Each structure stands twice: as structure tokens, then as C-alpha cells.
Amino acid sequence: MRGDWKRVVLGLLLGLALPAQGSDFGHAVVMEDSGRHTYYVAVAMGSLPAQQFLVDTGSSHSAIDSETLSKLQHSGHARYVGNLVGTMADGSKRRVPLYRIERLVIGESCVVQDVKAAVLPGADRNILGLSVLRRLAPFSMTTSPPTLRFSGCASMTASLEGKG
């Protein structure tokens, strides 16, 4: 109970309701520790094989690189929806295109439908930002072992049954 105040503060900062320690999240995905205080999870999009996405709670939107966008468009899994004016990490503003991705599969079984992702020119990695993480809420990250836990997604089985 002693560390609960940290969870409350984190929840307030992120605008999320974080459950008490020991709560059942339903899904857990092992994160890859890059060794630079950054963590990655496997995410598949459309018909593409899984790629590593940086888990970034400081990014308001999820983002994909131009190469990934090209592959998604070629397979019919990305649709342009408009532009977004975003504030970059250095404080500058940039207008970037926003695309609708039919679905993401995080880890092996968490399905998130109808995701919007920004495309950052010159980006060298894909980002799993708060636009998706909020939809997984409640969620938590632990670093030992590196794990992302969450409740708000459909399982692969439930998603496939919904298509029928």
C-alpha cells in the first residue's frame, strides 16, 4: 500500500484509472528492453508481420514510419483520414498525415480495431502512443520483468467471432 500514491499520481498525469496492485488485467505482453530506458512490444498491422513498436506514454498519438505506411496501403489496410498538427519533442509544430489502420494485434492476441496513426516523415521507428494505450486502459508497465499489462482489448478469438 505504501507505493499506491505513485500509482494515483501516475493515473492523474495520464488521465487513466489505474487499478490497485494485484488487479487482473487480462492481457500481458512482454516488452523488449532496449537497454536505453525504452521498451518495445510486438505489433502486427493488417497483413504485415509483427514489428517492434516503442511504448511511449509521452506521445499523444501512435505513429508509423513511411515504409510501414506504404506496405499497409499496398495491401489495402491504411486509409488517409486527414492531417494532424502535432507538437514534436523539441516543441516545434508539424503538420502530419493521419491514417486509419483497420486493426492492430498487440502481442499474440490483443486486437484493437480502427486505429488512427500519424505518419512522421523521416521516422525510423513505430510508436505505440496514448491514442492506443488509452483504449487498452486500465494498463500498467513494469520494468522487472518488462511487461505491459492491460484490460481494454478484444482477444483474437472474440475479434474473429465478431466478423462472422
Quickly describe the structure.
The chain has four helices and twelve strands. The protein is α+β, with helices and mostly antiparallel strands.
Structure overview:
By secondary structure, the protein is an alpha+beta fold. The protein has one domain: Acid Proteases (Cathepsin D, subunit A, domain 1), CATH 2.40.70. It is built from four helices and twelve strands. Strands 2, 3, 4, 5, 6, 7, 8, 9 and 12 form a nine-stranded mixed beta sheet that branches. The chain has a three-stranded antiparallel beta sheet with strand order 1-11-10, with no helix packed on it. β6 and β7 form a beta hairpin. It is globular.
What's the layout of helices and strands?
Layout lengths: L3 H11 L12 E4 L1 E2 L5 E7 L5 E5 L6 E3 L1 H9 L3 E10 L5 E14 L3 E10 L6 E3 L1 H4 L5 E5 L2 E5 L3 E2 H8 L1
Parallel strand pairs: 4-9, 5-8
Antiparallel strand pairs: 1-11, 2-3, 3-4, 3-7, 6-7, 7-8, 8-12, 10-11
